[in-house]
From TrEMBL, chain A:
Residues 71-89 have a biased composition (Low complexity). It comes from Chrysophaeum taylorii. GO terms for cellular component: BBSome; ciliary basal body; non-motile cilium. The lineage of its organism: Eukaryota, Sar, Stramenopiles, Ochrophyta, Pelagophyceae. One of its GO terms (biological process) is non-motile cilium assembly. Residues 68-103 are annotated as: Disordered. PROSITE patterns: TPR. Pfam families: TPR_16, TPR_8. Keywords: TPR repeat. The keyword Transmembrane does not apply. This is Uncharacterized protein. TPR repeats lie at residues 335-368, 369-402. CDD domains: TTC8_N.
Automatic annotation (TrEMBL), chain B:
This is Bardet-Biedl syndrome 1 N-terminal domain-containing protein. One of its GO terms (molecular function) is smoothened binding. GO terms for biological process: non-motile cilium assembly; protein localization to cilium. It comes from the Eukaryota. Residues 455-477, 568-611 are annotated as: Disordered. Residues 4-248 form the Bardet-Biedl syndrome 1 N-terminal domain. GO terms for cellular component: axoneme; BBSome; microtubule organizing center. Residues 485-572 form the Bardet-Biedl syndrome 1 protein GAE domain. It comes from Chrysophaeum taylorii. Residues 598-611 have a biased composition (Polar residues).
């Protein structure tokens, strides 16, 4: 059989690894074989495809190193940054960061990358998304010998841009496999000088290069130009992503709605509208849009998961349970889903199934602090303090910065009249909760300090709690009471 | 809209008086006047918008503590009593009439004997007094002044100076009130009631020449309020400086008085006291006004929190078609709050701190409120006839808060939920059994995992948090290790990192630890630091000690490598133990030396190249 034909066949079946090795063999025999070279490039690219349209976690370091900051003043409703006095206060965690859909979606090529990534993300330091790009590059580059074909030294971008088809393959290869946005950008610029007919494609790639380089304003220009020429969904999504990075959710929504007007039934666009709504904390709009997503695609994992979560937190665990069950039926099984099903069962009084689901979650992953944390919650629900504190302790042993568990342990210690260790628990929870929106350790610490007569500490802590969550009535009451004691009214 | 009429406001009245120092009383001619016992030792009388009289008190008198108007006999000639020092100066027709002096405090028997004996030398007097003092005798000021004098000459001078003064000590009147004698009619005879620093409550005859009866209360009285009629049945409520309210009432037969139990325990010092019908209102220094039942077991009816400390409290009786009694509470933030039972019906903003407040008839107007502020201005407010203190009729609404009527956001029950309920009803026993079984299983799984965790900790302490308290395997030396908590975090993006260590001695341990060494062990090909070891400062239970290490990643291309952090025990201590206690298990001691108290492995982040 002709090895090239075989390689093509492997490529079509998405068996990229074999395709690439066959091509490598071909290239050894005939180093000048352009077809084999291009096929190898495409195979390597295919190996490293990841969903660019996913939301990216914006790390703390990103916020710190962000030079594109527009305004630091709170802009409720038009910013994704959390505001202390949330206009349409959400009492549930925003699911945008730990999106169940992405976390458990079975993706072929991403799986091993994710495994490679797992170590660095669990370090004690937040990662930047740009750093992640680099690491993705090194992770994939380390495993395979560099082809070196598109090394900048060897191939001139201008010459390469002459052959459009090859240039497009090369561009994707540079972006996806080598993760060298600078070289890819050179190629895009060169190609844009050559080519005018499909320039939207090149502008789109240019935008992505800029985005990866962190040049969001340039990315915005390139992507807008691309969309003006030819409105394509990926380009629109990319532009929306850029706007979110610039913290302009309203602009992102405008772009998305313009695209939706043209193709109203596009799931991905609708999905993004929902995500943006969720990020700016307009829950009702977001849930409505998620409903539409699920109507359009009844097996949309993210849509189902978001609807399930919002139903659970809206006081309808039984409906949330339905959605989670649907996810399970679709084959999305992970410890998180089982935990969610278990919690839904527990809170909708389906006791015969609740604990079984949690046990199942434990069987799938007994090293997940969140699973143990939720078991601890169920234990509190059962009224078994020892059981609960054991579960929280296990969660802490798995992740010693788990502020929620520490807070709960503190509350349990209060119940045991052990104020000193309760205070210690709250103090370390406060340390770890400093950058999240967790106000409970501060409030509880203030309560204990108040009880012990340490009014000054109580006042400091409760002020911090009010800062984090201005809508918490108990914090406000306590603060008022303390200020009254100090006669600062 | 506030119902008050602003009748008169004199910013320059220059009145300096406290709550007991002003009163509304008839002076002459049947019209109500304001009498003020000013701190400037003057009795001032205000009528209408003017001050009509000003009578100085005798020059030897002290700052007045109270003023009250009463009737000495059936002739309906009003008299005014001004309490100052130990005396009650009585004025009739605005002329000094006579003076009543509160009984002086007799010196302690022992003390009196010492001073009376003339042959004793000053030194002997001092020794005798010291002995009496040691035995618990309450000495007067002259004896107390004697005690610290050591030099003979000074003692002699003191004795000579003091011997001419009688041993009895004059007391001071702290508060006054009046109590009707035979009937409660407007111009009937009334008695003045005095509270003194010598912890006495004295009811005087209407002529104010002698005491009708007197009672000793456990602490000096601060506020007096009277109710009833002396010849029939009466009560005097005494708020004392021991934060208690005592009730004094008629004794076994007429003319005697006893303290009636139970007394009222307050949570803070009293700031105001008012008797209204069957209730006693007490304002306390913790900005609260509490209402107690007068009858029975002194049951607390309610308690109101005020936005600021209470300065004064008064009753205002509004006599119209229906008699309404409202409670006026003056606050330190310049408000006067009007309560009807526990409902706030009006807030009067004075914008100055009210020093004294009284209500009653002024001129010919019945419902008048007199306010004297701290900077001496006089406000006269009158209540028009149309004013009603109806609950909910004014700005401040009474009754339950409006939130009570807002329905809670309870989610509607879904069809699905009802179906589930049906299922639960049908299979209740089976569900319960499964649940119990599952709960037990999960508990066992958790307990097993927890036990595993503890075992791992004791086997090798390579864990981020060392565990606390009750590890049975540990002997005494090791409890120190078990009580340490180590938390590490990495700051920085690389190649330079800061490792911040937080070491905490758990609160359960009482003895502090000192100078513990901390060591980092790392791959020298990958990291470099100028200081791989440090000594921790004094560790006090519950307070964290911090140590910061600067570390540099030399080779950024290599994957990050974990760094081991160990807190070691004391070497010297181990040696000492080894040499001193030969009975001690030697292996055990060595173990401690080898093993770190706490150790932890820190997963380092990949150094990030920013290009």
């Amino acid at each position: 059989m002709d090895p090239f034909w075989l390689a093509l066949s492997h490529f079509k079946r998405r068996d990229y690894e074999r395709c690439a090795s066959l091509c490598e063999g071909l290239l050894k025999q005939q180093p000048g074989d352009q077809a084999a070279l291009l096929l190898q490039c495409r195979a390597r690219t295919g190996q490293n495809v990841e969903d660019d349209t996913e939301l990216e976690e914006e790390g703390v370091a990103d916020l710190m190193l962000d030079e594109n900051a527009v305004s630091t003043k709170p802009r409720p409703g038009t910013s994704t940054r959390p505001t202390t006095s949330s206009a349409g206060g959400v009492d549930r965690p925003v699911s945008g960061y730990l999106r169940p859909g992405t976390a458990s979606r079975p993706i072929t090529a991403k799986a091993d990358v994710a495994a490679a990534l797992a170590r660095p993300t669990s370090t004690a330091r937040p990662i930047t998304s740009l750093g992640r790009e680099l690491r993705l590059g090194t992770a994939s580059g380390a495993s395979q010998a560099l082809d070196g074909l598109f090394n900048r030294g060897r191939v001139d971008a201008t010459t390469m841009a002459k052959n459009q088809a090859a240039a497009k393959v090369g561009c994707d290869y540079l972006l996806r496999h080598e993760r060298n946005p600078t070289a890819a950008l050179d190629l895009c610029t060169a190609a844009l000088l050559e080519e005018t007919r499909t320039s939207w494609w090149w502008k789109y790639r240019q935008g992505r290069c800029y985005y990866q380089l962190g040049l969001y304003r340039d990315a915005e220009n390139a992507l807008s130009a691309s969309i003006r020429e030819q409105r394509m969904v990926p380009a629109v999504l990319e532009l929306a992503k850029v706007y979110l990075r610039l913290d302009q959710p309203t602009a992102a929504l405008a772009v998305l709605h313009a695209a939706l007007a043209e193709s109203p039934d596009n799931v991905r666009l609708t999905m993004w509208v929902a995500r943006v709504h969720e990020l700016v904390r307009s829950v009702e709009l977001s849930v409505g849009t998620y409903k539409k997503v699920v109507e359009l695609d009844a097996s949309h994992v993210e849509g189902l998961a978001c609807l399930a979560a919002s139903n659970f937190y809206a006081g309808y665990p039984e409906i949330g349970l339905r959605f989670y069950r649907r996810l399970l039926q679709m084959g999305v099984a992970g410890p998180e889903i089982w935990t969610d099903v278990g919690l839904c069962c527990f809170y909708s009084s389906q006791f015969d199934m609740a604990l079984g689901c949690l046990t199942r979650a434990l069987q799938l992953a007994d090293d997940n602090p969140d699973v143990w944390y939720n078991i601890g919650h169920v234990a509190i629900g059962l009224g078994d303090k020892d059981f609960a504190s054991q579960a929280f302790n296990i969660a802490l042993s798995l992740d010693n910065t788990h502020a929620e568990s520490l807070t709960n342990l503190g509350v349990l210690a209060i119940r045991d009249h052990d104020a000193a260790s309760a205070l210690a628990c709250f103090a370390s929870a406060q340390n770890h909760a400093a950058d999240s929106s967790l106000f409970q350790p501060f409030f509880n610490g203030a309560l204990v300090a108040r009880k012990l007569g340490n009014l000054k500490d109580a006042c400091t802590l409760v002020s911090k709690s009010c800062e984090i969550n201005a809508d918490h009535p108990d914090s406000n009451d306590l603060k008022k009471e303390l200020l009254r004691i100090f006669h600062i009214t | 809209m506030a119902p008050w009429l602003h009748a008169h406001y004199d910013k320059l009245a220059g009145i300096r008086a406290h709550a007991g120092g002003i009163a509304l009383a008839e002076v002459e001619g049947g019209e109500g006047a304001l009498v003020v016992a000013d701190y400037a030792r003057k009795l001032r009388v205000f009528k209408g918008t003017r001050q009509t009289a000003e009578i100085p008190l005798p020059p030897s008198s002290e700052i007045p503590s109270g003023v009250c108007g009463f009737y000495m006999d059936d002739k309906k000639i009003p008299a005014i009593g001004v309490a100052s020092g130990p005396h009650l100066y009585v004025f009739r027709c605005l002329r000094p009439y006579h003076k009543y002096t509160a009984p002086p405090v007799e010196a302690d028997a022992l003390e009196a004997k010492v001073w009376r004996s003339e042959e004793m030398s000053p030194a002997d007097i001092r020794t005798a007094l010291a002995a009496a003092h040691a035995e618990g005798a309450k000495l007067g000021p002259r004896s107390l002044a004697m005690l610290p004098l050591t030099s003979e000459s000074k003692q002699r001078a003191h004795v000579e100076r003091v011997s001419k003064i009688p041993t009895t000590v004059e007391t001071t009147i702290t508060c006054t009130t009046t109590l009707p004698k035979a009937s409660e009619e407007p111009h009937a005879m009334s008695c003045v009631v005095l509270g003194t620093e010598s912890r006495k409550v004295i009811v005087l005859e209407p002529s104010a020449k002698a005491a009708l009866c007197e009672v000793e209360v456990p602490a000096p009285p601060a506020i007096l309020r009277a109710a009833g009629c002396f010849d029939v049945d009466w009560r005097v409520y005494v708020a004392c400086r021991d934060a208690r309210v005592y009730t004094i009432t008629i004794g076994d037969h007429r003319g005697t008085a006893v303290i009636r139990k139970p007394h009222l325990e307050l949570e803070a010092q009293p700031a105001g006291l008012v008797v209204k019908d069957k209730h006693l209102y007490v304002a306390t220094a913790d900005s609260r006004v509490a209402c107690y039942l007068l009858k029975g077991r002194r049951h607390k009816v309610f308690s109101l929190a005020m936005p600021a400390p209470v300065t004064n409290m008064e009753l205002l009786v509004v006599r119209k078609a229906r008699q309404v009694t409202v409670l006026l509470v003056a606050l330190a933030n310049g408000e006067v709050r009007v309560y009807r039972d526990k409902d706030l019906v009006d807030v009067l903003r004075v914008n100055e701190v009210v020093a004294a407040m009284t209500s009653g008839t002024y001129g010919r107007e019945d419902n008048t409120l007199i306010l004297v502020t701290q900077n001496g201005s006089l406000l006269v407010k009158m209540l028009p006839r149309t004013a009603t203190f109806e609950v909910g009729s004014t700005t401040a609404k009474g009754g339950p808060p409006p939130e009570q009527d807002v329905p809670l956001d309870i989610p509607k029950r879904t069809r699905l939920y009802l179906d589930q309920i049906d299922r639960e009803k049908a299979n209740a026993p089976a569900i319960f059994r499964t649940f119990q079984k599952d709960a037990l299983k999960l508990k066992i799984a958790t307990a097993t995992a927890y036990l595993q965790l503890r075992d791992d900790d004791t086997a090798n302490p390579d864990d981020n948090t060392a565990n606390d308290d009750d590890d049975d395997n540990n002997n005494n030396n090791n409890t120190a290790a078990a009580a340490l908590t180590l938390a590490a975090k990495v700051n920085g993006l690389g190649p330079f990192f800061h490792i911040v260590l937080e070491v905490r001695l758990n609160a359960g341990l009482t003895s502090p630890l000192r100078d513990l060494p901390v060591v980092l062990s790392y791959d020298p090909d990958l990291y470099r630091t100028s200081r791989p070891a440090a000594t921790l400062p004094l560790l006090i239970p519950g307070i964290a000690a911090h140590a910061i290490f600067e570390i540099e990643c030399i080779d950024e291309s290599k994957p990050a490598h974990p760094i081991a952090i160990s807190v070691l025990g004391h070497e010297e201590e181990e040696e000492e133990e080894g040499s001193d206690d030969d009975d001690d298990d030697d292996d055990d001691g060595d173990d401690d030396g080898d093993k770190p108290l706490v150790s932890s492995t820190l997963i380092m982040p990949q150094s990030e190249t920013l290009d």
